[in-house]
């Protein structure tokens, strides 16, 4: 089971968050056929992309933002609309045969999610060599991981206000049949919108969708960040559902309020052990907020059946706690009552 290293502190240009740069490549089964490459040369022999390259006749590459093991993200200019966008491409020195289909699956999963706090996909196109690329919203901001690394813990109220829009985006994703499976601070980008901050959920690269086909009943290899993975993801043997994302959100909330992760250790093996076997202690930061701790503790139940049954249930519980604490809006300025408790 391939797992990312325990360290999750990103290092990348502030203009676009590292989580976007390292976005994974997985998701749903392709709904369209990928064209065969126009060249017989192996991928490693193809010229690497360079600034000034124009793809599909309308996207000019301007700056390499970052690279992962299979993909690269570029800042590009849509020549027809005179608009800056982000392009995710397959690295030309990547020989992984599944890279193209995975990129397509990620684009399809992301496109199914419509919410202000989720990154948008604009287009799926192909280079002259037949290689697919995804055109996405270009986010100008910093990842939540960067903010936490630089500024430390937040007040419980600030943490809840920041996460509620992300929870809303995840609820929308679940309603569209998409489970993110990799919710973590590095995959939340804080974007300025006028005087407000809008958190954006990115990287649906390992999302599970309700239309994914698994050949021969075999489950796909699990990938992700062990410190944020639910026990059922770590163990494998069953599909993730919305309750896996509930777990991950509560891990992030725990970290934002306390300044540390609930499950930690010197390496991935010790983290996995703690995820499976250890109940996290209540941090001092939660002592004055027993109801908030009850919410987090329920979200971190080892059994999915012990957690909130849906992301919307978690959102409502947190909104009710915030309202009781005198908070009326989330970080974007949206009314908590109108969004989470419309019938109250």
From TrEMBL:
Stored Pfam families: Pkinase
Keywords for this protein: ATP-binding, Kinase, Nucleotide-binding, Transferase
Residues that, per the record, bind ATP: 88
InterPro entries: Kinase-like_dom_sf (IPR011009), Prot_kinase_dom (IPR000719), Protein_kinase_ATP_BS (IPR017441), Ser/Thr_kinase_AS (IPR008271)
Residues annotated as domain Protein kinase: 59-322
Stored SMART domains: S_TKc
GO molecular-function terms, A-Z: ATP binding; protein serine/threonine kinase activity
Descriptive protein name: Protein kinase domain-containing protein
Organism: Sorangium cellulosum So0157-2
Lineage: Bacteria, Pseudomonadati, Myxococcota, Polyangia, Polyangiales
């Amino acid at each position: 089971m391939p797992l990312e290293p325990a360290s999750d502190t990103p290092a990348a240009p502030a203009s676009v968050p590292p989580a976007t740069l390292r976005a994974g490549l997985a998701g749903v089964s392709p709904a369209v056929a990928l064209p065969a490459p126009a060249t017989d040369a192996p991928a490693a022999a193809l010229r690497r992309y360079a600034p000034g390259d124009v793809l599909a006749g309308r996207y000019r590459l301007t700056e390499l933002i970052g690279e992962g093991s299979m993909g690269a993200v570029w800042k590009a200019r849509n020549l027809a609309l005179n608009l800056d966008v982000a392009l995710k491409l397959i690295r030309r020195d990547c020989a992984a045969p599944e890279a193209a289909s995975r990129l397509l699956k990620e684009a399809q999963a992301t496109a199914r999610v419509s919410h202000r706090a989720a990154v948008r996909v604009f287009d799926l196109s192909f280079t002259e060599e037949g290689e697919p690329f995804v055109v996405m919203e270009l986010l100008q901001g910093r990842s939540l991981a960067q903010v936490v690394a630089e500024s430390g813990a937040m007040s419980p109220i600030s943490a809840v206000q920041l996460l509620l829009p992300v929870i809303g985006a995840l609820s929308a994703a679940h309603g569209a049949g998409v489970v993110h499976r990799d919710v973590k601070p590095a995959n939340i980008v804080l974007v300025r919108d006028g005087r407000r901050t809008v958190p954006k959920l990115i990287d649906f690269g390992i999302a599970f969708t309700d239309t994914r086909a698994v050949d021969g009943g075999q489950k796909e290899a699990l990938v992700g960040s062990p410190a944020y993975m639910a026990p059922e993801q770590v163990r494998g043997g069953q599909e993730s559902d919305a309750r896996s994302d509930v777990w991950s959100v509560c891990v992030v909330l725990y970290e934002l309020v306390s300044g540390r992760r609930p499950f930690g250790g010197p390496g991935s093996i010790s983290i996995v052990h703690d995820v499976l076997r250890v109940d996290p202690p209540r941090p001092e930061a939660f002592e004055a907020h027993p109801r908030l701790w009850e919410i987090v503790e329920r979200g971190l139940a080892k059994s999915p059946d012990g957690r909130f049954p849906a992301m919307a249930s978690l959102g409502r519980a947190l909104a009710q706690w915030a309202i009781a604490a005198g908070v009326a809006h989330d970080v974007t300025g949206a009314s908590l009552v109108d969004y989470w408790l419309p019938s109250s």
